[in-house]
Amino acid sequence: MGASTHRSVTVAIAVGLASGLALAGCSSSSSKPSAGTTGTTSSSSASGPASSSSSSASGTALPDLSGKSIQVLAEWSGEEQKSFQKVIDAFTAKTHASVSYQGAGDQTVTVLKSKLAGGGAPDVALVAQPGAIAQLAQAGQIKPLSDSVLSTIDANYAAGWKTLGTVNGKVYSIMFKAANKSTFWYNTAQFQQAGVTPPKTWDDFIKAAGTLSDAGITPVSVGGADGWTLTDWFENVYLSQAGPDNYDKLAHHKIPWTDPTVVQALTTLKQLFGNDKLLAGGKTGALQTDFNTSITQTFTAPPKAAMAYEGDFAGSVITSTTKAKLGADAAFFPFPAAGSLANFVVGGGDAALATNDNPATMAFIQFLASPEAAQAWASQGGFLSPDKNVPVSAYPDDTTKAEAQMLVGAGDNFRFDMSDQAPAGFGGTKGAGEWKDLQDFLSSGDPNAAAAQLEKDAAKETWQ
């Protein structure tokens, strides 16, 4: 979605017991919790190498990089930066390289482009925008990943993650830190009061909402004042109904927004958005409620709704703004399947890329693609890895374990947030493009008119 990563960063999920989690059988701006300020750190091996090579150490075999320096740029600061430093420390202990880190917040892509143009580019950058990575690759400003990196990726990731980082047949990036945006949060007491269980399908979801309403409980809180939340609603419905192939086509405007699959998804959403009885404050209230409030008001006393949809980062809002305990008072279920595809995840995340093909640069990315690197952060919390070989036991609490299982379990049915792949003018601008068009749809409830306006706005942009 361009220069602003409005919600691609996974925000730390507070530790909480989640024994009652219902999982149907069981990845950066002011519009969502912020990552904080920027920062710079460095790490090196002060005592020197323990041996001539670290290739015999446990985990991924890497060369001895004594005397080599690596610069890394990413968006993380505060607690996230401290957690990433654990990853850097593990790499340094393994290779004896010196690693310096700069955090650039939601300006990471802007800073990276500036450094590439003016000199002093970092060796490695972690970026939350596939579209920006594709542009850099096509401009020849970043390097394809080495065979050693690709071998590590093949051993640890489902094929879809490799495809996500592929441009013109070459792999330029790999996702290190992911976000699960297919989590639907609910107030357990409200469900129990109405005798409702977590729904697995969209039809069951609408029925459960009706049951809650009949019991005098407002079913759903929607943060429609932040247009990006509505894009996430659409993407989950669309992926389940239209399938991954059509999702990919629409994400790159290979099919128009007037396509029947789009109208069908909007018509499905109208079952909820068009019924004031099912929304906290009705349509008008939803359009006046921001993301944070939509989550908070579902878990305050008394609650204003029984459930609210948003990604795994909603957990940190619950724990920081209410007294609800994750897994006890607040739990989540997978976004209800609106179509034949039930095992899916829409998400975001931070992908590692290289600005040069130096051995040290490639070794760092190879390490990031290993379970060893993921476990170094996973143990700190606030982290999900798409690496299928990271053990569930690496995560610090049951809620995060369930989110991680859901993410990895989706396999090739994971799709990156569609609006984050779109040109910023369409998918990432407040009061314009998709954000505004879906807000207008929430207000009007006309699927065909909404599809026509979406296509009109999409046609104004240049797509990758």
TrEMBL record:
Residues 1-24 form the signal peptide. Residues 24-62, 438-464 are annotated as: Disordered. SUPFAM superfamilies: Periplasmic binding protein-like II. It holds the Pfam family SBP_bac_1. Residues 454-464 have a biased composition (Basic and acidic residues). InterPro entries: Bact_solute-bd_prot1, SBP. This is ABC transporter substrate-binding protein. Gene3D superfamilies: Periplasmic binding protein-like II. Keywords: Signal, Transport. Belongs to the bacterial solute-binding protein 1 family.
